[in-house]
């Protein structure tokens, strides 16, 4: 056997040995013994007994401020804070370099100190099991997800409320990781009163990002519940200062940002949540607003109809070279009427209610009036019948015009004498 054959066999056995070791490491990582794997945008905690020992993160473009890492550790930032791989010293700016730091050259670049297994295979050695182990803990939360994406596995429960193409799913399970990436959590605010004293239930989503797993998991008791309890009162106060019409105008079942509310919560709670819980508020969305009490339903339907009428007027009527309406303004008389109503509404604060009464009276011959609230995806049709529609405004009579004496439609209540 020549030297070339021996060298070839040695290389082949070495390769097989390395593959076998890699397979063994991967198997142990799945058991979370000695090794672990981490999904992108997440971190795991390593504990000694019940106390935190270290944290390992896998978040592209970011790293944890690891006090055991002599090369990258920055004492200006809290231990285990998430920092961008190109960072400055501003704690309030989450480590993102400011203009002043850029100009002064006070910016640091991350040097990857991970081992070969972590860099190339995503397998992290954390220490000697069972003296050290991956921390697991029970966690409950509700997700607002597109229909069909909710899981029917054990521990997952459909909350029963949906808005168009989205629905709420409650999840309770044991987890071993912590999100460093943006993640939306769904909550319900019940029996809140709007500025008009309408009692409503509000579904809202808070998108947050974990920026310090040590604070969130070990420095507070159930960080999500703490945040919910504080934000609950803030959102109740916000709803109490808004009219129902304004709330539904900002509702988006797909989770678009409700910027006024986002700005308010970040102003009130942003710094506190970062410093105390290691959680950063990204945005707040209102995904639905529903009346809580049946007696509020007629009022809400009337307001929604008024809101729709105003939205259609704004979309269909313009003043450039006269008024045009895409669907109903077919004659010069229609155009003149639209212009007259537009001018009256601009001058008279109660004209919108008069216009609403006119719209309902126009529909008296129909058994039902079905309206798609908001006109977009994720909005629920509202059916208003003559029996449950809002009461019409008193009839307005012009000189020489007699009140109508036509008999009521079938199923309608005759007007009082």
How would you describe what is shown here?
The protein has 417 residues and is an alpha+beta fold. It folds into 3 domains: 108 residues, no CATH class; 151 residues, Band 7 domain (Tetrahydropterin Synthase, Chain A, 2-Layer Sandwich), CATH 3.30.479.30; 90 residues, no CATH class. 33% of the residues lie in helices and 26% in strands. It contains 10 helices and 18 strands. Strands 2, 3, 9 and 13 form a 4-stranded antiparallel sheet that branches. Strands 10-12-11 form a 3-stranded antiparallel sheet, with no helix packed on it. Strand 11 and strand 12 form a beta hairpin. The termini are far apart.
> What Rg is obtained from the alpha carbons, in whole angstroms?
31 Å
How far apart, in Å, are the first and last alpha carbons?
118 Å
Round the mean pLDDT to the nearest integer and report it. 76
For the record, the CATH class of the largest domain is: Alpha Beta
Secondary-structure element string: HEEEEEEHEHEEEEEEEEHHHHEHHHEE
Structure summary, number of beta strands: 18
Largest sheet: 4 strands, antiparallel
**CATH H-level name of the largest domain... which superfamily?**
Band 7 domain
Helix content bin: 25-40%
The appropriate CATH architecture of the largest domain is: 2-Layer Sandwich
Approximate strand percentage: 25-35%
Unreliable runs, pLDDT <50, ≥5 residues?
A: 317-330, 346-354, 359-417
Total number of helices: 10
Class from helix and strand fractions: alpha+beta
Number of domains: 3
Q: What name does CATH use for the topology of the largest domain?
A: Tetrahydropterin Synthase, Chain A
**What global shape is seen?**
elongated
């Amino acid at each position: 056997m020549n030297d070339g054959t021996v060298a070839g066999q040695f290389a082949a056995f070495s390769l097989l040995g390395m593959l076998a070791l890699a397979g063994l490491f991967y198997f142990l990582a799945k058991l979370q013994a000695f090794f672990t794997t981490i999904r992108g945008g997440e971190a795991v905690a390593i504990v000694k007994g019940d106390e935190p020992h270290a944290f390992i993160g896998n978040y592209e473009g970011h790293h944890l401020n690891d006090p055991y890492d002599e090369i990258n550790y920055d004492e200006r930032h809290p231990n285990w804070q998430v920092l961008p791989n190109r960072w400055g010293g501003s704690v309030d700016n989450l480590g993102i370099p400011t203009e002043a730091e850029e100009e002064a050259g006070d910016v640091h670049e991350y040097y990857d100190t991970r081992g070969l297994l972590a860099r190339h295979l995503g397998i992290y050695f954390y220490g000697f099991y069972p003296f050290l182990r991956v921390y697991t803990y029970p966690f409950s939360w509700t997700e607002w997800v597109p229909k069909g994406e909710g899981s029917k596995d054990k521990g997952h429960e459909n909350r029963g409320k949906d808005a168009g193409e989205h629905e709420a799913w409650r999840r309770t399970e044991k987890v071993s990781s912590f999100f460093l990436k943006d993640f939306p959590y769904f909550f319900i605010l019940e029996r809140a009163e709007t500025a008009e004293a309408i009692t409503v239930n509000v579904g809202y989503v808070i998108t947050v990002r974990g920026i310090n797993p040590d604070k969130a998991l070990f420095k507070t008791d159930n960080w999500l519940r703490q945040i919910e309890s504080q934000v609950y009162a803030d959102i109740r106060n916000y709803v109490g200062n808004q009219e129902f019409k304004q709330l539904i105008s900002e509702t988006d079942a797909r989770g678009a940002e409700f910027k006024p509310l986002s700005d308010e919560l970040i102003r009130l709670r942003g710094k506190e949540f970062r410093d105390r819980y290691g959680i950063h508020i990204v945005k707040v969305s209102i995904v639905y607003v529903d009346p809580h009490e049946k007696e509020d339903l007629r009022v809400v339907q009337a307001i929604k109809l008024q809101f729709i009428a105003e939205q259609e007027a704004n979309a269909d009527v313009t003043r450039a070279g006269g008024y045009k309406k895409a669907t109903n303004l077919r004659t010069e008389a229609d155009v003149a009427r639209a212009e007259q109503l537009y001018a009256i509404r601009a001058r008279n604060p109660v004209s919108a209610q008069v216009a609403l009464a006119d719209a309902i009276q126009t529909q008296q011959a129909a058994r039902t009036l079905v309206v798609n609230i908001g006109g977009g995806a994720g909005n629920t049709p509202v059916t208003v019948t003559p029996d449950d529609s809002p009461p019409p405004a008193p009839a307005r009579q012009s000189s020489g015009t007699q009140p109508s004496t036509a008999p009521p439609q079938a199923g309608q209540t005759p007007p009082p004498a």
